[in-house]
Amino acid sequence: MNKEINKLLSIVVPVYNEEPSLKELHQEISSVCQAMGRPYEIIYVDDGSTDNSFERLREIQQQDSRVRVIRLRKNFGQTAALSAGFDYARGEIIISLDADLQNDPRDFPRLLEKLEKGYDLVNGWRKKRRDPLLTRRIPSMVANWLISLITGVKLHDYGCTLKAFHREVVDNIKLYGELHRFIPAIASHIGVNITEIPVNHRHRKYGRSKYSLWRFFKVILDLLTVKFLLSYSTRPLQIFGTFGLVSGVIGGALGLYLTYLRLIVKQGISNRPLLLLAILLIVIGIQFISIGLLAELLVRTYHESSEKKIYYVREIIDSSSSPSSE
Ligand code: UDP
Ligand code: MG
Predict the structure, then answer these.
(1) CA–CA distance, 282 with 295 (Å, rounded to integer)
(2) Measuring from each residue's beta carbon to the nearest atom of ligand 1, which residues come in under 6 Å?
(3) Which CATH superfamily is domain 7-232 in?
(4) What number of other Cβ atoms are within 10 A of residue 214's Cβ?
């Protein structure tokens, strides 16, 4: 237990046009962290803000040497911003949260308590979510239901940025698109202990949400990708090939039956729609198997290709003079 408390804690915050809330947020985070009495750093990732967020962050950094600001070259999206924050975090334990004051830093100690009990990842669950019903809560309910159904990881709130985890959890995960909400699903696939606790959620005090309903559809498409990557990315031929084989075998059987009719029973088959179906199924079968083989080739490249980043950093300001990447 004592050892846990000495571990450096990295707080990672993605920031996109959140100027009005930053000072308040920093105060909230700092007072909670100081009260916990453990070493910490706070990493603000400015995701190409067009307001004065970066200026505010610079001021915050000047007053607090525990702060590091990563400024991305443009708006790469929340997932990329989080990913950048995780990469630059030095702590063994990471907590991520939104910059809009909707997540409550006072939940940190409870999240960490769960980690100490042996979990690798503790996800926040916005049990009483203070967001619009139609554009946020309903789509999110549907998405959560689908995600837990398809990935088999049972959580209530995948979209909650507030979570705590050991850094190894994200070391092995590459994030794309809206994929940060699939961290638990991907992590559980690599054998990580996951749990959740209800966390406080507050109304957005300043500014507006950066998302529209479009995100829902992106999330659903990402879910497909995740499912595919998790289940079949190493053996795509198994999924495509199965379809291909089933289709090909049915088509082949129909073809044999028609051949039998034509050659043995001496029936005309040119007017049989079944003939078309047989040909269609055989062609589809061949197509699927070929796609599966192509995917096998792609997968080799995918797994062996170079480590590409999904964001580019403009500058980093912190109190040490040496460059901060490892
Ligand atoms: N965010 C970001 N890049 C973006 C969009 C959002 O870094 O392109 C940050 C934003 O500043 C906030 C968090 O992601 O800290 C969540 O965004 P928002 O509050 O708009 O989402 P919601 O709470 O409505 O899901
Ligand atoms: Mg929000």
Answers:
(1) 20
(2) 14-16, 18, 47, 75, 77-78, 81, 98-100, 102, 209-211
(3) Spore Coat Polysaccharide Biosynthesis Protein SpsA; Chain A (3.90.550.10)
(4) 8
**Tokens 């009495």 correspond to what residue?**
37
Nearest-CA residue for atom 22 of ligand 1: 209
**Measured from the CA of 18, which atom of ligand 1 is nearest?**
11
Q: Which ligand is in closest contact with the Cα of 136? A: 1
Which numbered atom of ligand 1 lies nearest the CA of 45?
7
Q: What tokens appear for 227 in the block?
A: 């499912």
d(CA 109, CA 35): 10
pLDDT tens sequence across 48-67: 999 999 999 999 999 999 99
User: Could you count the other beta carbons within 10 Å of the beta carbon of residue 101?
Assistant: 21
- Which atom from ligand 1 is nearest to the alpha carbon of 100? 15
Q: Which two tokens stand for residue 104?
A: 């409550």
Q: State the average pLDDT over residues 279-297.
A: 94
Its pTM stands at: 0.83
Q: Which ligand is nearest to the CA of 161?
A: 1
Tell me the domain boundaries of the chain.
7-232, 236-304
